[in-house]
Design goal:
The chain has seven helices and 15 strands. It is an alpha/beta fold. It folds into two domains: about 160 residues, Protein of unknown function DUF3822, N-terminal domain (Nucleotidyltransferase, domain 5, 2-Layer Sandwich); about 90 residues, Protein of unknown function DUF3822, C-terminal domain (Nucleotidyltransferase, domain 5). Strands 1, 2, 3, 4, 5, 9 and 15 form a seven-stranded mixed beta sheet that branches. The longest helix has 14 residues. It is globular and about 50 Å long.
Length: about 300
């Protein structure tokens, strides 16, 4: 299934020997879509065991239509993605067209108006949808291409499909990780060409934003700006990292020049991983696995 000619490449695939196509009706399918990459996870909803994981990177694309065609090609060649009888399908959209709105201020009729404060909406080609984040008592409003949404609904017409935004799963996962901690911490997710920064105090979301990364120095620049804005001391504040980063990566080595107390986060609680997943570091793909934490 590795195919650069088709515009995508399978980077990592892990299949638990308990995975059985005959039991798809009791599995949850997690899908994460972006213009840069694509991941899937399959979880046995009876015990929370992760049974299958795949990570793809996508080639350079010049239009949304090329991206949709690429996804269609990938799905058509995949042995289980187009199966129609999952327990549920949860699709996470990775884009910058989103906004978080407190529940107390949210009115469904004004969904598009909220998003207009943060992004330009192509009303002809984009739908504006929302998902509720129970732990934050907020609503995430985001845009998705209409033809992509229509295609997904057609594939999964016989099952429950939920669209969420990457920010929702990240915030949910980090709130679970933070628990009732009163420590001053900054939570960071290093994505492909993007940086997510989150602050939580007393089990409440204080800050969330994502930053496009154009050059290596941007990582430290944005972290330092956020720490300064939140009044955090770079010598004493604890920083927790997830994402495409390791102790030997240039990102990490640069971080610890400026920030002293840096550690790596863990996988979301409540999910089970067999020994075969030992080849994937625990702080990788936190956003994908945290989709399962959202109460949809």
């Amino acid at each position: 299934m590795q195919s650069t000619a088709l515009g995508y490449k399978l980077i990592k695939k892990i299949t638990d020997d308990r995975f059985d196509e005959e039991n798809i009706h009791q599995y949850d399918l997690l899908v994460q879509l972006s213009v840069r990459d694509f991941q899937i996870g399959i979880i046995d909803c009876s015990d929370g065991r992760v049974l299958l994981f795949e990570d793809y990177v996508l080639g350079d694309l010049s239009s949304h239509q090329e991206l949709l065609t690429l996804f269609q090609t990938l799905f058509e060649s995949h042995p289980v993605l187009q199966a129609g009888f999952w327990n549920s399908v949860k699709v996470s959209i990775k884009n910058s067209k989103f906004v978080q709105v407190p529940n107390s201020l949210f009115f469904k009729e004004a969904t598009s108006e909220y998003l207009k404060f943060n992004a330009h909406i192509d009303q002809e080609n984009e739908d504006v949808i929302f998902c509720e984040n129970e732990q934050t008592d907020a609503v995430t409003i985001f845009a998705v291409q209409k033809d992509l949404f229509t295609w997904l609904k057609r594939i999964y017409s016989n099952t429950k499909i939920h669209l969420v935004h990457q920010s929702s799963s990240l915030i949910e996962g980090i709130l679970q990780f933070a628990g009732k901690s009163y420590k001053s911490r900054l939570y960071i997710y290093v994505d492909r060409f993007k940086l997510h920064i989150i602050s939580i105090e007393n089990n409440k979301l204080i800050y969330y934003n994502q930053f496009a990364i154009k050059q290596f120095s941007d990582y430290v620049k944005y972290i330092m700006l956020v720490m300064k804005g939140l009044g955090m001391d770079q010598q004493t504040c604890e920083v927790i990292l997830w994402g495409y980063i390791s102790q030997n990566s240039p990102h990490y080595l640069e971080f610890i020049k400026y920030i002293r107390n840096v550690t790596f986060g863990n996988r979301p609680e409540g999910l089970k991983f067999g020994y075969i997943f030992d080849e994937v570091q625990e702080h990788h793909f936190f956003d994908l696995f945290s989709i399962q934490l959202l109460k949809l």
